Amino acid sequence: MADRAKEIIDILRAKYPDAHCELNYGTDFQLLVSVILSAQCTDKRVNIVTKPMFEKYPNPIDYATMPQEKLETLIHSCGFYRAKAKSIISASTDILEKFGGKVPRDMEDLLTLRGVGRKTANVMRSVAFGESALAVDTHVFRTAHRLGLSDKPTPEGVEKDIVAQLSEEDLSVAHHLLIFHGRYVCHSRNPECGKCPLTSYCNYIKG
């Protein structure tokens, strides 16, 4: 399985040599806010919303002291704006009061922040802090199942399966590669199988 997983990642590396996080941010904190906003929302929409917001309100103290109604107005078009506003304000407050104004690097500490689950925590560990971590979003979950990298029914199960099959070097890029593949080729509906270099590995095509 490990050899098979590496083959898949190598093929994806060749297809998406520029795979990267498509959220725009300037600091670790801004990435955290962007990832919270990206739940059930496109990165493109998040970037549109955060560009003026981060220019005017770049730091945790800006959000910890901001009325919730004001933040809701700023992020309204990202959807689920009330829950996301509560999460951002609460996380900002904890970052200031518990972590000295810096986003924590430790997984357990990250998971104490409101609005931060394993996916968001792993994005921070991988993208912000350069650690070998795999964030499992809907794209990663779907492509992992279709490509036979996991058959687990939960994101955490998929994460464990893929982590067990990949080296640290491959793991550090697997998140971005699988997201790019899911976003641009292996769509949930009407996947563009004619553009896919992985059809020989694919359970979806095999039926």
Helix/strand layout:
Elements: H1 2-15, H2 28-37, H3 43-56, H4 60-64, H5 68-75, H6 81-98, H7 107-110, H8 118-128, H9 138-146, H10 155-165, H11 168-184, H12 203-206
Q: Could you give the order of the helices and strands?
A: HHHHHHHHHHHH
Helix content: 55-70%
Distance between the termini: 20 Å
The assembly state of the depicted protein chains is: single chain
Q: Choose one word for the global shape.
A: elongated
Which consecutive residue ranges, at least 5 long each, have pLDDT under 50?
none
Portion in strands: under 5%
Question: Which sheet architecture does the biggest sheet show?
Answer: none
How many strand elements? Answer: 0
Integer average pLDDT: 96
Q: What value does the Rg take, in angstroms?
A: 18 Å
Count of runs of 4 or more consecutive helical residues: 12
Global structural class: mainly alpha
Structural overview:
By secondary structure, the protein is mainly alpha-helical. 60% of the residues lie in helices and 0% in strands. The chain has twelve helices and no strands. The model has no long low-confidence stretch (mean pLDDT 96).
Primary descriptors:
single chain; 207 residues; mainly alpha; 12 helices; elongated
Task: Provide a quick synopsis of the model.
The protein is mainly alpha-helical and 207 residues long.
